[in-house]
């Protein structure tokens, strides 16, 4: 199996996310659009991100039918259908219940900018009205990120690498935000500073570099678990 295999890519993203403390419980999903058909690859429900391997990734069409594989997938796969159908620009969707992300959703507002990397979410962080699957795709609109109250978040992008890197960055931005929110006199980045910083971190290729890091961490985690599929594909 090589690094281009979508099952390997989805599983590697799950394993990488788990090294950031994201997805240690059942639930959460990573998907990527299949080439040349109305379908996508997504992880099965009955494994945590920490356990995911390429064998745990199935192919679904946009109507809930499993085209390849025979596993239970999350009922939340419904909102992947809705997002892929509505957003031609989206090639990958990452949903998790990351602990800092979930804590942030209780504040019922978009993430505040406490760090350079938080600028990725400036003007890009939507709020879902509630956590019904029907509300999530419309809630996301044309943005990259949606916070789902008392539940978690979704990040989307034009590649699995960037959707995953964005998710890890959101967990970091959320931790800063939740930690800073109670501190008197602390103020987030001034609004007139945000566009310049956002342009800088985008031009620096931060998200793609971060995905390389996520892959290295995933490779280490699989090796520690005695699994060779990812290390062999990266060799
Ligand atoms: Zn969920």
> What is the beta-strand fraction?
15-25%
Q: Count of DSSP helices?
A: 8
Q: Which strand order does the major sheet show?
A: 4-3-2-1-5-8-7-6
**Biggest sheet layout:** 8 strands, mixed
Residue runs with pLDDT of under 50 for 5 or more positions: none
Counting DSSP E segments of at least 2 residues, the number of strands comes to: 8
The CATH architecture category equals: 3-Layer(aba) Sandwich
Alpha-beta content class: alpha+beta
Assign the CATH topology: L-fuculose-1-phosphate Aldolase
Give the N-to-C terminal Cα separation: 12 Å
Q: Secondary-structure element order, as H and E?
A: HEEEEHEHEHEEHHHH
- What is the mean predicted local confidence, pLDDT? 95
User: What small molecules accompany the polymer chains?
Assistant: zinc ion
From the alpha carbons, calculate the radius of gyration and give it in angstroms. Answer: 17 Å
CATH superfamily: Class II aldolase/adducin N-terminal domain
Indicate how many domains the architecture comprises. 1
CATH class: Alpha Beta
- Percent helix, as a range, is 40-55%
Described by the principal axes of the CA atoms, the overall outline is: globular
SSE inventory with pairings:
Elements: H1 6-18, E1 29-33, E2 39-43, E3 57-61, E4 66-68, H2 77-86, E5 92-96, H3 99-105, E6 125-127, H4 133-140, E7 145-148, E8 152-157, H5 160-180, H6 194-203, H7 206-224, H8 229-234
Parallel strand pairs: 6-7
Antiparallel strand pairs: 1-2, 1-5, 2-3, 3-4, 5-8, 7-8
Helix pairs in contact: 1-5, 1-7, 2-4, 3-5, 5-7
């Amino acid at each position: 199996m090589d690094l281009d295999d979508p099952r390997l890519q989805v599983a590697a993203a799950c394993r990488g996310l788990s090294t950031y403390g994201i997805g240690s419980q059942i639930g959460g999903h990573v998907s990527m659009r299949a080439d040349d058909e109305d379908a996508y690859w997504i992880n099965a429900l009955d494994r945590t991100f920490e356990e995911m391997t390429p064998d745990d990734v199935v192919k679904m069409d946009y109507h809930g039918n499993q085209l390849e594989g025979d596993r239970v997938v999350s009922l939340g796969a419904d909102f992947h259908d809705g997002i892929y159908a509505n957003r031609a620009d989206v090639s990958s969707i990452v949903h998790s219940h990351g602990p800092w992300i979930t804590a942030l959703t209780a504040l019922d507002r978009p993430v505040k900018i406490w760090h350079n990397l938080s600028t990725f979410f400036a003007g890009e962080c939507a709020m879902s009205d509630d956590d019904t699957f029907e509300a999530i795709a419309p809630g996301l609109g044309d943005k990259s990120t949606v916070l789902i109250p008392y539940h978690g978040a979704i990040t989307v992008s034009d590649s699995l690498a960037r959707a995953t890197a964005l998710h890890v960055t959101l967990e970091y931005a959320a931790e800063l935000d939740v930690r800073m929110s109670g501190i008197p006199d602390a103020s987030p980045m001034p609004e007139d500073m945000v566009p310049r910083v956002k342009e800088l971190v985008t031009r620096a290729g931060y998200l793609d570099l971060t995905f390389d890091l996520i892959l290295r961490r995933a490779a280490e985690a699989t090796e520690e678990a005695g699994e060779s599929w990812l290390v062999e594909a990266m060799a």
